[in-house]
Design goal:
This protein has about 575 residues and is an alpha/beta fold. Helices cover about 30% and strands about 25% of the residues. It has a nine-stranded mixed β-sheet. The radius of gyration is 24 Å and the shape is globular.
Length: about 575
């Protein structure tokens, strides 16, 4: 797999091709139309369920499989078998019904990863109620804002999170880490009683439409302020069929023998869609890590014979480093590693593929607003495009739109990505203005991501539209400059943002983390970049720093960079 690395790892290989040429000789005719600017998925369409009264829980558990273990706690080994999963869901639903939760009510889940997380989600959805999730590390003000905005009437949380929701007037259900815990504390209801109390036969069976709201997740979208993304049962069913089940159908191995290591947070769209919902329609086992620890990751992979691992860039780096230092037999079970949520550097990809050449490495693209459906890597003997986001999901359409002129861009030309398909959200909660800005009257979701499709139909992400630097009228993508900077042997990490300039408006400013002991100078950095990019893209200022501010997912926190600029 490493032999074609130089050929396939080409972040800047955009080929310019005019629309007029495509009209005369459209070699992409089966998947791109120059007349409409619409890209079709290269995959065949998938038939989606047409029953208007189908809910996502019924859809998931209508799949017949023979998987043994559904959920496994990575530390304790506490296991919930498939034979117990659906009865536990119905018991949870029955208990919630007895507490007064009914169709349309909103339940807040403020938890880290847990083997009980899917049971809670399914129990709420079974009743036709609505789930909203949050990072358990959220501040009190953040919790209050989301609880009020979503109108949550019940919360699931950990005992040590009770202080955060005290005074909000929302009853809290305490959730043990792995089971058997005594939670009879002030303000807590006993979770063990909740899943073991009511008979599953007493659970109501409400009429749920595919178009009914199932989940409200909060996202900054393309405008920077957090908004409630309203996802329907139809959106979630589409996600399962177009993302999880379709991807699984592309491989020859048995899904019921696969073991997935769940580190990505279940409160996030990717963890919620993949680990909480999608995999149970396949019969695969999910090994749940409450929080990431590199040593525990190695133990879990070896102990449970993990086959699939979804990561973000920092975890990919940690995985690679462990693979270099830990006996190779530990990694024999691994079949595939997928990286997403944030851009991953070429160096990191090269390092991983060369360290674990037997593991299929892919990337994927999706948004909360598209229910995590977008594109997914798929390597073949002919194409191993590790830096691409893969091919577009079935039943989805795309456009690449010049953000200045509004023109539709053909393959090889970059612009803002627009998506359309059954996984696109219903809209933003109580925010018609933001919804209209993001999804037009024809159903096109403006993603805010700058992309291009290559000649084989693989999607490549360049940057976020709102991060674009405007230099003398030219548009510069910070990620392109960052990709250049980290190829310098003395640069460990780099981030680029805009600095104000009276003459040019904005100029690219680079924050550099250099190797220990390096004598690299600002002038040397400027000269290095100048030899590799067009003159207007050159970095104009350099700041050496001890670290690059990044989120847990590895995304550069450019707002923090801009605040640093103000102090310089």
């Amino acid at each position: 797999m490493a032999t074609n690395m130089n050929e396939n790892l080409n972040l800047n290989s955009q080929k310019t091709q005019s629309t007029s040429h495509l009209h005369n000789n459209n070699k992409y005719s089966h998947w791109y139309s120059p007349e409409t600017g619409i890209y079709q998925s290269k995959h065949p369409p998938v038939d989606l369920p047409k029953d208007p009264f189908l809910d996502v829980v019924s859809h998931i558990f209508s799949q017949h499989h023979h998987g043994v273990s559904a959920l496994i706690d990575s530390t304790s080994g506490h296991t919930i078998p498939y034979s117990h999963l659906y009865p536990l869901v119905k018991t949870m639903a029955s208990s919630l019904h007895q507490m007064g939760i009914s169709q349309g009510d909103v339940v807040l889940i403020l938890l880290p990863n847990s083997v009980y997380f899917p049971i809670i989600v399914f129990g709420v959805l079974y009743l036709g109620a609505i789930v909203t999730t949050m990072n358990p590390l959220s501040t009190l003000s953040e919790i209050k804002k989301q609880a009020l905005d979503s109108k949550a009437i019940l919360a699931f949380t950990l005992p040590d999170c009770l202080d955060k929701i005290h005074g909000l007037g929302i009853p809290a259900i305490g959730v043990p880490e792995t089971g058997g815990s005594d939670l009879k504390q002030m303000g807590l209801l006993d979770f063990d009683q909740l899943i073991g109390g009511q008979s599953p036969n007493s659970v109501p069976n409400p009429t749920i439409h595919q178009e009914d709201t199932a989940v409200i997740l909060y996202s900054s979208g393309t405008t920077g302020t957090s908004k409630g993304v309203v996802l329907s049962h139809r959106n979630l069913i589409s996600m399962i069929e177009l993302f999880v089940r379709f991807e699984a159908s592309q491989y020859e191995y048995s899904n019921e023998e696969n073991v997935h290591l769940a580190v990505m947070p279940m409160f996030h769209i990717y963890g919620l869609s993949y680990y909480v919902m999608g995999l149970f329609s396949l019969g695969s086992a999910v090994v749940v890590m409450r929080k990431f620890d590199a040593n525990e990751m190695v133990k879990a992979i070896e102990r449970y014979k993990v086959t699939h691992f979804a990561t973000v860039p920092p975890l990919l780096v940690a995985l690679t480093e462990k693979a270099k230092s830990v006996d190779g037999s530990v990694w024999k079970s691994l079949k595939q590693v997928c990286c997403g949520a944030a851009p991953v550097t070429r160096k990191s990809i090269e390092d991983f593929v060369q360290t674990l050449p037997h593991v299929d490495f892919i990337q994927g693209y999706g948004m909360t607003e598209s229910t995590a459906v977008g594109s997914r890597g798929f390597n073949t003997e002919k194409h191993r495009k590790y830096t691409s986001m893969g091919l577009m999901a079935p039943n989805m359409e795309a456009r690449v739109v010049d953000w200045v002129t509004g023109s539709f861009m053909p393959p090889g030309r970059s612009g803002e990505l627009w998506f359309r398909g059954p996984a696109v959200m219903k809209g933003y909660l109580n925010n018609e203005e933001a919804t209209a800005i993001t999804v037009d009257e024809h159903g096109w979701l403006r993603t805010g991501d700058i992309v291009y499709f290559d000649e084989e139909g693989y999607l490549h992400i360049l940057d976020r539209l709102k991060e674009i630097i405007k230099y003398k009228g030219f548009q510069i993508a910070p990620a392109e400059l960052e990709a250049v900077l980290v190829t310098h042997p003395d640069i460990l990490d780099a981030a680029v943002t805009a600095a104000m300039d009276e003459e040019a408006g904005e100029v690219p400013m680079a924050f550099i983390l250099k190797r220990h002991g390096s004598l690299l100078s600002e002038a040397a950095v400027l000269d290095y970049v100048a030899t590799k990019v067009a003159p207007y893209k050159k970095v104009r200022k350099v700041v050496f720093t001890q670290s690059i501010p990044r989120s847990a997912a590895g995304k550069i926190l450019r707002r923090e960079l801009r605040s640093l600029i103000s102090k310089i």
